[in-house]
Amino acid sequence: MNRRFDFRSSVPAISRLLIALGLFGVAALSACGEKLEAGAACPLLCPATKDVNLKDTTVDAVSIDTSVAGFPTIGEEAPLLLAARGDTLDTRVIFRFDSIGKTYPHPTVPADTFVTHVDSATVRVVLDTSTVTGVPGLPTQPVTIELYDVDSPADTVAADLLPLFTASRLLGSKTFAPESLAKDTLFLPVAPAAVLDRAIHGTRLRIGLRLVSPTSTQLRIVSSATAGAVLRFKPAADTAVTVALRSMTPTDSSLVTLQGDLRDYVITAKGITPPPPNTISVGGYPARRTFLRFDLPSHIVDSSTVVRATLTLTQYPMRASPSALDSLGIYPFAVTAGTVVTDISRLLRLVTVNTLSAADSLRVVPADSGTRKLELVNLVRIWRNTKPELTQRALVLAIGEEGVNPAIAAFFASEAPIDLRPRLQLTYVPKVTLGLP
Questions:
Q1: What DSSP string describes 145-213?
Q2: The domain that contains 296 carries what CATH number?
Q3: CA 348, CA 335: separation in Å to the nearest integer?
Q4: What angle is formed at CA 157 by the lines to CA 282 and CA 143, rounded to 5 degrees?
Q5: pLDDT for the residue 189
Q6: pLDDT at 432
Q7: Nearest-angstrom CA–CA distance, 226 and 230
Q8: Upper half-sphere CA count for residue 332 (Cβ side, 13 Å)
Q9: Do 384 and 348 have their domain in common?
Q10: CA atoms of 48 and 27, how far apart (whole Å)
């Protein structure tokens, strides 16, 4: 028996179905509207709403945390820090003039003339007088810069070079009033006899600078990467010779880049007292960086979308730090290398400290203590968009004025008591299934 379909008789049923679906949609949208903001991360039923159910959890997720000193690498300092910070820091700047030349072009003689006399030799240096947040400005008291002959078989080892800063090796000195330092360019006298001896014998001249001041102070000297030091002397009354920085060691041809870097560099005569062993730290001189790797909970990472992470640190007071009462900027940087790279020192050196592109930061006072929270918004974005094997779930902490500001901040590490350890607070969106076939 055939049954005829009557469209008119089905209208009430269709209307009831549409009304039911409409009520269901309203209820679903209302449910989305009761939660926190999240936008496009909202589940399927409310893709255009602003709200989503966010959950928070705090985990001890740090699997590795360690601090390594030595930044910037010797020879890559820009600018060069010449510091006399009393009991906290004493640094020296080394200039290499490894080729002076035995002859010079005389304006009235067609052939080059041998150097047989030297008069009024000076080293010209340029100061970086720019204002940097948290970094001491120019001295307010007179300061003296001393120049020493530090030529020795030792290359860059501070323990071998520092004993050469003695009265018998003094090449010259000059005292500067505070207002004269604002002129940027300084001319430091060098003993003419020392320059003449190097020119006649074709040997190198290596000069070490020492800053002497009655108060804690420092100068920033522009490095050879931009406007390095210049040796200038007069072998005749009407002629001046200018000699640029040059390093001829190491002699290994495969280390030509390092050879260039070592035209000028910094050594540390007195360093900053390191923090205790159960801490991690950033800053100081040479600056320290901290590496942290996280073991994120799989039940959150695999089945949720992490939208925010906050690193909680407990600060350890560094009251003996230079500028201990001034604020210091700390920045987290992503480790973009994959998991195949396990050398932490290498991972730390792969990071370029660029505060202009850093979205997250934390400011602390080195002498303070207490709980500090560092938002990791930018890192979460990177982690979310890349696979763990391509981008490690790790970060590097560094200060923004690395190599210029010698202040150091410290925090308790994962070896500390449990209530002092670093913790990671995760805010995430659980994946929602509708239960539909």
A1: EEEEE--SS--S-HHHHGGG-SGGGEEEEEEE-HHHHTTSEEEEEE-HHHHHHHHHHT--EEEEEEEE-
A2: 2.60.120
A3: 8
A4: 70
A5: 98
A6: 57
A7: 12
A8: 24
A9: yes
A10: 15
Successive 10-residue mean pLDDT values, the chain, 437 residues: 44 47 45 42 43 81 93 93 94 97 86 91 96 87 97 89 97 97 94 97 97 96 94 93 94 89 96 92 96 85 80 96 94 87 91 80 96 90 80 91 94 95 90 53
Neighbours of 399 (CB within 10 A): 27
Residues 364 and 408: their CA atoms lie apart, in Å, by: 10
Q: Beta-strand (E) ranges in 51-126?
A: 51-52, 55-59, 62-71, 80-84, 90-97, 103-104, 113-114, 119-126
Tokens matching residue 289: 């960086």
- Encoded tokens for 269: 């005569």
Smallest CA-to-CA distance from 309 within 428, 425, 430 is with 425
In this prediction, residue 42 carries a pLDDT of 41
44 Ramachandran zone, left/alpha/beta (phi>0; psi -120 to 50)? alpha
DSSP string, 212-259: E-SSSEEEEE--TTTS--EEEEEEETTEEEEEE-B---S--GGGHHHH
The domain of 162 spans: 90-270
Are residues 200 and 60 part of one domain? Answer: no
Domain assignment of residue 83, yes or no: no
Q: Are 252 and 356 within one domain?
A: no
Cis peptide before 43 (omega within 30 of 0): no
What per-residue confidence (pLDDT) applies to 28?
A: 45
| DSSP annotation of 368 | -
CB 347 within 8 A of CB 337: yes
Are 226 and 135 members of one domain? Answer: yes
Regarding whether 228 and 99 lie in a shared domain, the answer is: yes
- With respect to residue 382, please indicate whether it lies within any of the assigned structural domains: yes
- On whether both 260 and 279 belong to a single domain, the answer is no
In the three-class reduction of DSSP (H, G, I as helix; E, B as strand; rest coil), residue 298 is classed as helix
Secondary element (H or E) of residue 428: strand 423-430
Reduced to 3 states (helix: H, G, I; strand: E, B; else coil), residue 402 is coil
Total domains, the chain:
2
Residue 282 sits in the same domain as residue 265? no
